[in-house]
Design a protein that fits this description.
globular; mainly beta; Jelly Rolls
């Protein structure tokens, strides 16, 4: 039985010296009967040079991050700063690295943090370019030896898991095991070490500067699924979409920084980058104006192609507020709505930076508020896991789901026996249609990736044959999550 589910230094050398000179005098020395006090020698602190090889990222994110933490902590070489998930989040959460250029990666190692609120990480799966490469334990060097555009690390733990089992009646399975991670627990990472052929890399992620981004129009503004803050979340799969009736001409994005910055260019991931099908279906940006707010905007053009595009400004601009205005678009096959997946700026030294906006937290809090007092409240930011087994049927089946408070979700399904395994992953957005204390109806939409087709993919088949767009309506009632089309029942 096969079930398809929906399933990114400059070192300092300090020498502190003391210059002691000698003064000649013809006067006899003064003799004191007081004890002399020895002047302590200054301590010379030398910071070891950082000889790691710089490796730039154009995207870094974690699927769940505690408000007191930051995913960039895993690369800062500070043993006291760690990345950790939100309370109740742990299993099936992860970290994504997008390299600025495809890079030969020799190995990777994860070192987990040790704090009382953290559950130990049992293992993690390494994905390269979207495909599973290896399963490893923390502290273990994982051999990769491949040129990769991105790496994703998906974590697993068997600690602090509440387990219940019950018999079921099924054509193949006779028992189901339900698992829930404790709501007051988290997982945490102190270091991620990435090595190339010539040694360890020094990972340099884009700097995220405090500020705000606002759009003159947004599609389905009340749902946050296409909010302008998603332009700076490093996730190429989540997009801002304009909300005008036409093709978005005249729509403006306003970028405001707390401190003055200089922008000499932009990096843009045009259109809906979630998949090739998503990209072709929606309108994309073609011509746009850019400059400081209140001044004349210079015009630029993008190509109609997936992936990152760099635009060098005719003249660098400085200030705190900037505008991007849509001037023309490439038509989508199915929708007029124009989408942009991601934007970064670069300065005169070509260093990448983006905006860290409080709007992201505001949207998360709004979603949490909508779930209060409903059946969704206990599900948000917590993984639901089902294991189906049978004494007579050799293949076990797992199903899991996470609905996150930022409006994203992930669904995993796998079937495995002694000789083979098949995995399906789906991720995307979720929106509340209605919810109360007894039941809820939500809409989910995104991309489904079927790893049983990987051999076809590497044989030259198009991405569209490996992944596909999906949309489903889900009912949550009587401790069951059930979809109308693609999502089979998940118990909790």
């Amino acid at each position: 039985m096969k079930t398809l589910l929906l399933i990114p230094l400059i070192f300092i050398l300090s020498f502190i010296g003391c210059d002691s000179g000698t003064t000649e005098t013809t006067s006899p020395p003064v003799v004191s009967d007081k004890p002399t006090t020895e002047i302590p020698t200054p301590t010379v602190e030398i910071t070891e040079p950082d000889n790691r090889i710089p490796l730039a990222l154009n995207g870094l994110y974690a699927t769940s991050t505690d408000p007191s933490s930051n995913v960039q902590f895993v690369f800062d070489r500070d043993e006291t700063s760690i990345w950790k998930t939100r309370s109740g989040a742990g299993p099936d959460e992860g970290i994504m690295l997008y390299f600025a250029e495809p890079t030969m990666i020799k190995s990777i190692k994860v070192e987990q943090a040790d704090e009382s609120e953290l559950a130990s990480i049992e293992s993690y799966t390494v994905y390269g370019n979207g495909s599973p490469l290896d399963l490893a334990s923390p502290g273990q060097d994982v051999s990769i030896n491949q040129e990769l555009a991105n790496i994703y690390l998906r974590f697993s733990t068997d600690e602090n898991i509440k387990v219940t089992s019950s018999p079921i009646e099924s054509d193949f399975y006779d028992k189901i095991q339900l698992e829930r991670f404790e709501q007051n627990k988290k997982i945490g990472i102190k270091n991620i070490i990435v090595e190339g052929e010539n040694g360890e890399f020094k990972i340099i992620a884009p700097a995220m500067m405090k500020g705000a981004v606002n759009a003159s129009s947004t599609l389905k503004e009340e749902s946050f699924a296409y909010d302008a803050s998603l332009l700076f979340d490093a996730r190429k799969e989540f997009v801002w979409v304009e909300g005008e009736k036409g093709d978005g001409i005249g729509t403006k994005l306003v970028f405001t920084f707390d401190e003055e910055v200089t922008i000499s260019g932009l990096q843009l991931w045009n259109g809906y980058q979630r998949s090739e099908s998503h990209y072709k279906s929606n309108a994309k940006l073609k011509g746009f104006g850019f400059g400081t707010s209140g001044s004349a905007l210079e015009s630029y053009q993008l190509k109609d192609e997936q992936g990152v595009q760099s635009v060098k400004l005719k003249t660098p601009v400085s200030g705190k507020s900037f505008e991007l205005e849509i001037q023309s678009s490439y038509k989508g096959w199915s929708y007029k709505d124009l989408a942009i997946s991601e934007i970064l700026f670069f300065d005169e030294a070509d260093a990448l930076f983006g905006i860290r906006s409080e709007r992201t937290n505001d949207n998360r809090n709004a979603i949490k508020q909508k779930t209060k007092g409903t059946v969704l409240e206990s599900l948000v930011d917590s993984r639901i896991f089902n294991l189906y087994t049978s004494e007579e049927y050799p293949m076990a089946m797992t199903r899991s789901a996470i609905l996150r408070s930022d409006g994203t979700f992930v669904l995993y399904s796998s079937e495995e026996d002694e000789s083979d395994s098949v995995e399906t992953i789906a991720d995307g957005n979720w929106e509340i249609i209605k919810a109360d204390s007894e039941s809820a109806t939500i809409s989910v939409f995104g991309k489904l990736l079927d790893f049983s087709l990987l051999e076809m993919y590497y044989a030259g088949k198009e991405d569209a044959e490996l992944s596909r767009i999906f949309r489903d309506k889900i009912t949550i009632k009587d401790n069951t999550i059930q979809g109308e089309k693609l999502i089979n029942a998940i118990k909790f």
